[in-house]
Specification:
Cytidylate kinase; nucleotide-binding; binds adenosine-5'-triphosphate; binds the ligand Nc1ccn([C@@H]2O[C@H](COP(=O)(O)O)[C@@H](O)[C@H]2O)c(=O)n1; Rossmann fold; 9 helices; globular
């Protein structure tokens, strides 16, 4: 079974995708980490994230980079949304994600274009959302816990800018797949959001099985 989980920054998609993977005992890929690794590699080599050729050169990163805490920085996230807008960067990361999705037994992937581009054939698709203010509050408290003293206003402005960049790019923009189930986590606890996510996955899988039977 392939489960695709998409949504904007700090909507809770990673939390849900990881929990779904554990619930269904499936391997999990946070595809945002791949773009973050490219972004960190761009910075490491003093390249310009806005120049496509620079960003493409940084796609050939050392696997160990995926475990580097620098990937979790907000600055890296911002840079990731710049490199991810280049079609050649998306093409360079495409096959790796496809292979992960298509492994025997299936997988759970989260990102921005899993249900639309990486695994349009997924058995279940969720589009996780929450209001920008609530997402900023969550990200702000996460950053504070990590010792940052960034202001709430700055976090909210960054979230809005990232939404705008991710949704407006021409290549694989952030958009819900037509057949994705929407899950608004704004007023749900993590436990309630996961319970709802499982219900939505079960419903889609059942529907798909019924359709296949005719
Ligand atoms: N339903 C929820 N209620 C309250 N907090 C939540 C909820 N879901 C997630 N969170 C918290 O919000 C923060 C962001 O969640 P998460 O990392 O899952 O978001 P994300 O969409 O994967 O973000 P990103 O795209 O930046 O990786 C985390 O600190 C997480 O614990
Ligand atoms: N499938 C994806 C995943 C991520 N991106 C871009 O990377 C940025 C960082 O992603 P996080 O999920 O780790 O916050 C994100 O803002 C996107 O620009 C993507 O394009 N496609």
């Amino acid at each position: 079974m392939i489960i695709a989980v998409d949504g904007p920054a700090a909507s809770g998609k990673g939390t849900i995708a990881r929990a779904l993977a554990s619930h269904y005992r499936l391997p999990y890929l946070d595809t945002g980490l791949l773009y973050r690794a490219v972004a960190a590699n761009v910075a490491r080599h003093d390249l310009d994230p806005a120049i496509e050729a620079d960003a493409v050169a940084a796609c050939d990163f050392d696997e160990a980079l995926l475990d580097d805490p620098i990937l979790r920085d907000d600055e890296t996230g911002k840079r990731a949304s710049i490199v991810s807008a280049h079609p050649l960067v998306r093409a360079a990361l495409f096959h790796r994600q496809r292979r992960f999705a298509n492994q025997p037994g299936g997988a759970v992937l989260d990102g921005r274009d899993i249900g639309t581009v990486i695994a349009p054939e997924a058995d279940a698709k969720l589009f996780v959302k929450a209001t920008p203010t609530i997402r900023a509050r969550r990200r702000h408290s996460e950053l504070r816990d990590r010792g940052s003293n960034v202001s709430m206003d700055k976090v909210l402005a960054d979230i809005r800018a990232r939404d705008q960049r991710d949704s407006m790019r021409s290549s694989a923009p952030l958009v819900a797949a037509n057949d994705a189930a929407l899950l608004d986590t704004s007023f749900l606890s993590i436990e309630a959001a996961l319970k709802r996510a499982i219900e939505l996955v079960e419903r889609q899988v059942k529907l798909k099985a019924e359709r296949a039977r005719g």
